[in-house]
Design a protein that fits this description.
300 residues, mainly beta, six-stranded mixed β-sheet, 23 strands, elongated
Length: 300
């Protein structure tokens, strides 16, 4: 009867190869932290037989790779705000928005069959929104279009926006809320734009906007928007007054021309005429004089 090998003996070569390969793992490959807080980037050596493997951390942002931990030393600005924890993990203190990036933990184990392994950690640093800049028209006539704007650039991830009138939130969907069914506005939470297509008296009020993301929110100060009736009668009356004034001015100018108040001075003044030559006076030009002089002659 042939002897059969135990099943575990057949697996020994495979297990041996795995035990001789350096292998990394992480407790969290996508950590999220708010700005100015500390965060741990987990990198754990799951298996290795190399007693002192080489550890390196790299940062990859916008396609550029730079060292964070190399040659057993922190590099760049991480030298004063980062450290290695539990042999391989990286702790970053006082995180900033510029720390949002992919971090690569690389371990070199020369004594292992597989000598190198690496793992990527995607770090996201959330940034609270700054006070948004809000623009609200002060006065709009009934029936006209009014555009309100709200925006900020500092928050990460990007902020979404909500508008309030007299401290009450405006619904993005006017049809779903009976209170706003009479309002004809469009609210875009992504851009922060609130557009009234045809304002009415009920749209008068104090408007404010809140920018919100996963890290927090910020609010701009309330601004008053007044919706007023357009006085058609007053406008027509004003136009008639202007027309009447222009007519009177035109008539006055015509009368002045007729009475000669605007006549040319040549026509109203005495025209210059060459004096007639008196009898018995002859004009003689001499070489010594530059102009004419007259000489009297007597006829006997």
């Amino acid at each position: 009867m042939a002897l059969r090998r135990p099943a575990f003996l057949l697996l020994l070569p495979l297990l041996g190869c795995r035990l001789l390969a350096v292998e990394l793992t992480s407790s969290n490959t996508k950590p999220v932290v708010q700005e100015f807080q500390s965060v741990e980037l987990s990198c754990i050596i799951k298996s290795t037989i190399t007693p002192d493997p080489r550890i390196e951390w790299k940062k990859i942002r916008d396609g550029e790779t730079s060292y964070v931990f190399f040659d057993n030393k922190m590099q760049g600005d991480f030298a004063t705000r980062a450290e290695i924890l539990s042999r391989t993990s990286l702790v970053i203190k006082n995180t900033t928005r510029m720390d949002t990036a992919t971090y690569r933990c690389e371990v070199a184990a020369p004594s292992d069959t597989k000598t190198i392994d690496e793992i990527n950690i995607q770090l996201t640093v959330q940034v609270k929104p700054m006070t948004p800049r809000c623009t609200v028209p002060k006065a709009v006539p009934v029936g006209k279009t009014a555009s309100l704007h709200c925006h900020e650039n500092e928050g990460y991830p990007k902020s979404t926006y909500s508008w309030y009138r007299n401290s009450e939130p405006l619904s993005p969907d006017t049809k779903s809320n009976a209170k706003f069914q009479n309002s004809s506005y469009t609210l875009n939470p992504t851009t922060g734009t609130l557009v009234f297509h045809a304002v009415h008296k009920g749209d008068t009020g104090r408007y404010s906007c809140i920018a919100t993301n996963d890290a927090g929110f910020a609010k701009c100060e309330e601004q008053e928007m007044e919706v007023y009736d357009l006085n058609i009668g007053g406008i027509i009356g004003g136009v008639l007054v202007v027309v009447a004034v222009l007519v009177l001015i035109t008539l006055g100018i015509c009368c002045a021309y007729r009475r000669g108040y605007f006549a040319n001075s040549k026509e109203s003044g005495e025209s210059y005429k060459t004096p007639a030559k008196p009898d018995g006076v002859n004009y003689i030009r001499t070489d010594d004089e530059g102009d004419f002089r007259h000489k009297s002659s007597f006829v006997i």
